[in-house]
Design brief:
Blueprint lengths: L1 E6 L3 H10 L5 E4 L7 H5 L8 E2 L3 H6 L9 H6 L2 H10 L4 E4 L3 E4 L4 H14 L3 E3 L4 E6 L4 E5 L3 E9 L14 H8 L8 E3 L3 E3 L9 E9 L2 E9 L3 E3 L1 H14 L5 E6 L6 H10 L6 H5 L5 H7 L14 H12 L1 E8 L7 E3 L20 E3 L13 H16 L2
Parallel strand pairs: 1-2, 1-9, 2-6, 9-18
Antiparallel strand pairs: 3-5, 4-5, 7-8, 8-9, 10-17, 11-14, 11-16, 12-13, 12-15, 13-14, 15-16
Helix pairs in contact: 1-6, 1-13, 9-12
The structure holds flavin-adenine dinucleotide.
């Protein structure tokens, strides 16, 4: 009989197993041939493992159920994650926007450090073994796999979401949770690209800083035009709201402010102060690339000299920079979204321990929970923080 069995060897499960092993005999079961297959892909293979923003700012980057994380982030937050990996001998660096990466620029540095720590702490690991079901007996739990059966006093479920299923995250944990009568909220793609109604032929154009105005949301960040729509950090952030609205609408309209640092008046003044003998296109090129100008200003002759355009046309030119409207017909699917939104409802999880409030000695941590962040290191922070708390709570 094990004291603790951890199901799933992603970031959440690995740290949970290390922390649970302080006073316990622990087994981690992973269906892949290696640990952290998704973790390996993170940050473009460089692993943006956390973000050192203040907790208040951090909370703004968690669009749903952020209050659930107060306790776990307090116990093991971004600075603790930083210190933890540094102490494990992985030098880290802080990049733009407070994102933390291993100095090696290799996610494998993080996986290897965790794996080594699991071995040092005598965590048993079963690879290539898939958990099929969990039977909750009165005094113990039985874990049935495709190869064997194990008895354990406690179980931590860290099977991840449904995104990038080829990494092993195929949603198995939702089935275990459902069988245990845990509530599962609706699953949806989060952090994904958008497909526009019209093909834009603007692929490859990047705008470093736009503001997306969508309903009451104001989201800033970079934007990339793709062969069939839009991508990039600002788009990833807005995508889950667009997805939800597209359930009842054939199309939704995004308004993109391509010059968020100036208001209409300031731009109008800038246009008036600009060399009036020059053409409109030369002024616009100060803000957006030529190919985009040609697309947006199809109906306006941008080769006209500024001096020859009316006040009304000037206002129109400005408002087109501030309110570029695009119709969206679809988002990326859960399979290719970075994150799965929804999951095991936090209503029945104790935020201080990650233990189910329905079943004693059953814990959930990581992306399987109905809590996620935007891109920028927030999701790995959630995985490490909730995994740490689940593991510690088993002692
Ligand atoms: C391409 C990509 C890049 C990303 N980049 C970043 C980034 O830079 N920073 C960031 O913060 N977040 C990033 N994320 C998100 C982040 O990777 C996840 O939020 C995080 O991996 C979730 O950790 P987890 O441990 O909960 O689940 P997972 O990492 O999904 O791990 C779950 C594990 O459980 C195993 N498993 C599942 N079912 C079973 C079963 N039945 N039996 C046994 N084992 C099972 C799986 O094989 C898997 O190894 C990225 C995501 C993607 C897809």
């Amino acid at each position: 009989m094990y004291d603790v069995i951890v199901i799933g060897g992603g970031p959440s499960g690995m740290i949970a197993s290390i922390k649970a092993s302080i006073n316990n005999k622990v087994l981690l079961i992973e269906k892949n041939e290696s640990l952290g297959k998704k973790l390996k892909l993170t940050g473009g293979g460089r692993c943006n493992l956390t973000n050192l923003k203040s907790i208040d700012y951090f909370m703004k980057e968690i669009p749903i159920n952020n209050k659930f994380l107060y306790s776990s982030l307090n116990k093991f937050g971004p600075n603790d994650i930083y210190e933890y990996f540094t102490n494990l001998g992985v030098p880290l660096k802080i990049e733009e926007d407070d994102k933390v990466f291993p100095m090696s620029d290799k996610s494998t540095s993080i996986i290897e450090a965790l794996n080594k720590e699991m071995i040092l702490n005598n965590v048993d690991i079963k690879y290539n073994e898939k958990v099929i079901s969990i039977i909750n007996k009165d005094s113990y739990k039985e874990i049935i796999t495709n190869k064997d059966k194990y008895k354990t006093k406690k179980v931590i479920i860290t099977t991840g979401g449904l995104s990038y299923p080829n990494t092993g995250s195929t949603g198995d944990g939702y089935k275990f949770a459902k069988d245990l009568n845990q509530e599962i909220t609706t699953l949806y793609p989060a952090e994904t690209y958008l497909i526009t109604k019209e093909t834009l032929s603007l692929a490859g154009i990047t705008l470093d800083n736009v503001r997306i105005n969508y309903n009451k949301k104001r989201i800033e960040g970079s934007l990339l035009f793709t062969h069939n729509g839009l991508s990039g950090p600002s788009i990833f952030k807005v995508s889950e709201f667009v997805y939800k609205d597209l359930i009842n609408n054939k199309y939704i309209t995004l308004s993109i402010d391509m010059v968020p640092n100036y208001n209409d008046n300031e731009l109008f003044n800038k246009l008036n102060e600009y060399d009036q003998k020059k053409e409109v296109i030369s002024f616009l090129k100060e803000f957006i690339p030529k190919r985009l100008i040609e697309y947006i200003y199809k109906e306006i002759d941008t080769n006209k000299k500024i001096v020859n355009i009316s006040k009304i046309d000037k206002q129109k030119i400005i408002s087109m920079l501030k309110e570029f409207k695009l119709e969206i017909k679809e988002t990326g699917s859960i399979d290719n979204a970075f994150i799965t939104g929804g999951g095991v409802s936090i209503k029945y999880i104790n935020p201080k321990t990650m233990e189910s409030t329905i079943h004693k000695d059953i814990y959930f941590a990581g992306e399987i929970l109905d809590v996620h962040g935007y891109t920028g290191g927030y999701n790995l922070t959630i995985a490490f923080s909730t995994g740490y708390v689940a593991g510690i709570s088993c002692n």
